Amino acid sequence: MKEAGYYDESTNGVVVMVEPYSQKELIQQVVYRILDANLDRAREGLRIIEEWCRFGLNNAQLSAECKQLRQEIAIWHTAELRAARNTPGDRGTELTHPQEEQRSSVKSLLQANFCRVQEALRVLEEYGKLYHPNMGPAFKQMRYRVYTLESNLMGYQRHQLLLRSRLYLVTSPSESLLATVEAALKGGLTLVQYRDKTADDTLRLEQATKLRQLCHSYGALFIINDRVDLALAVDADGVHLGQQDMPIAIARQLLGPQRLIGRSTTNSDEMQQAITEGADYIGVGPVYETPTKVGKAAAGLEYVSYAAANSSIPWFVIGGIDANNINDVIDAGAERVAVVRSLMQAEQPTLVTQYLLSQLNRVKPET
Ligand SMILES: Cc1ncc(COP(=O)(O)OP(=O)(O)O)c(N)n1
Ligand SMILES: Cc1ncsc1CCOP(=O)(O)O
Ligand SMILES: [Mg+2]
User: Fold this and answer.
1) Residue 172 appears among annotated catalytic residues
2) Domain residues of the chain, as ranges?
3) Is 238 helix (H, G, I), strand (E, B) or coil?
4) Residues 232-261: pLDDT tens digits?
5) What ipTM does this complex have?
6) What is the rounded distance in angstroms from the CA atom of residue 87 to the CA atom of residue 101?
7) Long-range CB contacts (< 8 A, 24+ apart) of 13-18?
8) Where are the stretches annotated Unknown (predicted)?
9) What is the whole-number distance in angstroms between the Cα of residue 178 and the centre of ligand 2?
């Protein structure tokens, strides 16, 4: 015979009951406590995610899936499991990780809570097998649903932010790469592409990792030029592919449905093909000839007007655009602009970002 203490809720205080327990009963109590704690943990984590889906994203479908999962979990939270609770005696409640106290962004908050929910569901799946024959399979299925929820939520957020983005900074090699990008982010930039055609992969990995962290800390999207492998390696939001780069279908297979794929286009055929192949956005240009892309002929303002009338997905005009001519491309129908030199060579990237955005924000978006 063993002794075990527990918290008696009926007296509303800490009462250590000393009762005779068999070894089997003692183990059962421990299993019940594990189930009770993890049922709470999974539901709390889902509630935190649900609040963002509801109030942050205003997305009824994602909110409903969180709610449905919470309700399915609640069904398993029986009175006998609740009765096994032993909060004052649980040393684990005092343990917090320093990272739990600090979150750098909503994204990291959501990721931490998805992690928490998935861990709790895994515990419920394993220990649940000792409680009821249906509990293990039920929680396994819920765990997979939470993976799908996470992927859908992250993909939805990316697409929403892409739709809201009017200005796109494509970087060029620079001594002050991070400082320039940060200055532009401070001005309200929400979309950045890392483009370095000559650096070796060690430097690309290092710079792309730092830029991804920087962009995400400002809530901005981070895209990699040309390289799907690099995009995956640094957990970027997507990749930008030219006509000579990897086909969209293969990139999609590698990146999955939730990351963004952009495609460069210089004419109507390339535009239609990019849309048919499932690009999330297109580059339209070069509108003007530019030293950043030597030898590439200008597509001109006519192609901008064509895109305005025909593109069913977000499109960014690119090539030679600056504060002096931005209103010409806007007049031709552009609502979104991508630039390299205008920001990378600006003395005050924050001010230039604010100016370009102020011009673009005068037009109402179609998509
Ligand atoms: C937004 C955007 N549009 C077009 C391009 C050009 O891509 P690509 O034709 O592959 O040329 P490189 O940039 O790889 O030299 C782009 N990068 N971004
Ligand atoms: C990468 C690219 N693709 C078409 S034009 C261009 C470069 C645009 O650079 P800038 O904004 O300095 O003219
Ligand atoms: Mg390319």
Assistant:
1) no
2) 2-158, 165-360
3) strand
4) 999 999 999 999 999 999 999 999 999 999
5) 0.99
6) 21
7) 14/88, 16/89
8) 1-145
9) 19
